[in-house]
Specification:
The chain is an alpha+beta fold and 238 residues long. It has two domains: 37 residues; 186 residues, Glutaredoxin (3-Layer(aba) Sandwich). Helix content is 50%, strand content 14%. The protein contains eight helices and seven strands, in the order H-E-E-E-E-H-E-H-H-H-H-H-E-E-H. Strands 1, 2, 3, 4, 5, 6 and 7 form a seven-stranded mixed sheet that branches. Helix 3 runs antiparallel to helix 4 and helix 3 runs parallel beside helix 5.
């Protein structure tokens, strides 16, 4: 009887091991050979046009333009601004490899503070402080209450009377709604979304590639190189 109980216990252990092995094999069959699901590739949207007036917030002089549609309250956009954009500026914009444009796309249903933040940035642009406000809003990590937006205006030494008047006016709202309309035409549904485009003489651009979500700088660089026809140095900081 004792030998029988020992044999039964051994069989129970072997059975449990067998189940674990089966689960492991199933997992390997599902994921092991190919790894996790691949990141969506850049989508070819060759030929779509964006009017020059939508690219009012532009850095750089290159005819190849990296365009970001984003939202100041979006966590992934904040990550891009804090981690990727400094590299983009250093390695692509400042070296003349690409220009960079930011276009508003506040997701108002889930980010209620994003639209007022976009308005604040547009009002700062009226005092030639767009990029300074852009950086300040993203560094705020979602702290975008009305009184906080005014604090940032004070930090940037904006004329408060002019800034407050701008916040109440229709002009910046019309501009942001125009950006949203442009994003919708391009099929943008989330943020951040990026487009690589080539610039025309009239200031408009023709879109060539699209990336959705957080994107490593080297992915942008490879797409830009394919348009420019010449490789640029790979980043050592990624």
């Amino acid at each position: 009887m004792k030998a029988f109980r020992h044999l039964k216990a051994t069989l129970d252990v072997l059975s449990s091991v067998g189940v674990l092995v089966a689960v492991a094999l199933l997992a390997w069959a599902q994921f092991g050979r190919s790894g996790p699901p691949p990141r969506p590739p850049a989508k070819n949207v060759d030929g779509m046009r964006i009017a020059g007036e939508r690219l009012a917030h532009l850095q750089g002089t290159s005819k190849i333009v990296l365009i970001e549609f984003a939202d100041f309250e979006c966590p992934v956009c904040i990550r891009h601004a804090q981690e990727a954009f400094p590299l983009i500026k250093k390695e692509l914009i400042d070296t003349g490899v690409a220009s960079y444009a930011f276009v508003n796309f506040p997701l108002m249903t889930i980010h209620p503070r994003a639209f007022p933040a976009s308005i604040a940035a547009e009002c700062a642009a009226g005092q030639d402080k767009y990029w300074e406000m852009h950086e300040r809003l993203f560094s705020a990590s979602g702290a975008l209450l009305p009184e906080e937006l005014k604090e940032y205006a004070d930090e940037l030494r904006l004329n408060r009377e002019a800034f407050d008047g701008c916040l109440k006016s229709d002009e910046p709202k019309v501009r942001v709604r125009g950006d949203i309309e442009q994003a919708t035409k391009l099929g943008v549904t989330g943020t951040p979304s990026f487009f690589i485009a080539t610039r025309n003489e009239d200031g408009s651009v023709i879109v060539r590639r699209r990336f959705d979500g957080y994107t490593p700088v080297n992915d942008f660089r490879q797409a830009i190189d394919s348009l420019a026809g010449a490789p640029s140095p790979r980043s050592n900081s990624e």
